[in-house]
Amino acid sequence: MALPGWTLCFFGVASVCGGFCIYRLLAGARRSSLNRGLVRELMARTERPLFWIAYSLYTRTKLGYMFYKRQMKKAREKYPAGHSRAQPTNINGIKIIPVPVLSDNYSYVIIDTASSLAAVVDPADPQFVQACLEEEGVTLEAILCTHKHWDHSGGNRALRRLHSSCRVYGNLMDNIPGLTHPLTDKDTIDVGTRLRFRAFYTPGHTVGHMIYLLDGRAFGGPSSLFSGDLVFLSGCGRMFEGSASTMLSSLDTVGSLNDDTLLWPGHEYAEDNLLFAAEVEPGNVVREQKLQWVLQQRGQRLCTCPSTLAEEKQYNPFLRSHTQDLHRALGLQQNQDEDWTSYRARVLEELRRQKDIYKAR
């Protein structure tokens, strides 16, 4: 639908002015507990027009990139060695290294130690990722980008300038920075002979979100899922660009994978997510055991990934929309004229609504 020129001009000016105010608010978020509360409230209530102005500016304009650069600079100053202490996981010569970046993100360096070839998932801070590559003495062959948000894609171009033959993979719909190899659902990506990834199209958080499954059969181990902002330990991403039905379909893609699959999420949200899960299902014994382990880990600033999908299916409420326990906890019942999938989408929508109010993650 076309709009008159003066209307477009008005909205443009309003967006810029609103964006400047929002940028100043976000940039000063760490200065006081009051500002942190305001930012949390703004980001949690995604139905508010002000949020969507801010979100559009973050994802579609240079203001978003400026904000990302500012946050990266502040994180480097606050966490010169990274926000968490992470240990590599070595499975039959395949080495997976979580790289803590920004305030709570994880990038991942995946190495075939036999060939010294590497792939990187979501290199948000190119300086930290490049330092890891140099320390390991490996050649970067591919960047696998889950989605467009700057805290996942911001380092793509800088790394490619350092590694000119490196391929950048992602979904064309998400306008990935530096993209060279667009992907569609179930495409495969080979790095050498033992690193084979399958990309799955999982919209909901963004319109073009992808996840990447490293096939364990190539090296005789479990597969590994790099889930970006779709699934976290005991959590899932917010539905910025999709309905609950869309997000449910994407989560069901994860639920269909083998139980021994290792989960490598895009953020260190484990403690917050498990505390929320405790509010929803206080009697879940497996969740309580995991929470106690996570509290010990975070008390020492240790990384909490990976978990396994078998674990997640027991305590992650966003993967449990089919369970009667969760339905009772939320006080929901299936309507007579409501099909099962629609009902589960309604369960997911209510769960996400409660999580958004509980904590802005």
Describe this structure in words.
This protein has 361 residues and is of the alpha/beta class. Helix content is 43%, strand content 19%. It folds into two domains: 11-78, no CATH class; 89-358, Metallo-beta-lactamase, Chain A (4-Layer Sandwich), CATH 3.60.15. It has a seven-stranded mixed β-sheet. A hairpin with a 2-residue loop joins strand 12 (231-232) and strand 13. The radius of gyration is 20 Å and the shape is globular. Mean pLDDT is 90; it is low at 1-44. InterPro entries: Clx_II_MBL, HAGH_C, Hydroxyacylglutathione_Hdrlase, Metallo-B-lactamas, RibonucZ/Hydroxyglut_hydro. The chain crosses the membrane at residues 7-29. Its cofactor is Zn(2+).
Q: Any descriptors?
A:
361 residues; alpha/beta; Metallo-beta-lactamase, Chain A; 2 domains; seven-stranded mixed β-sheet; six-stranded mixed β-sheet; 13 helices; 15 strands; zinc; metal ion binding; Hydroxyacylglutathione_Hdrlase
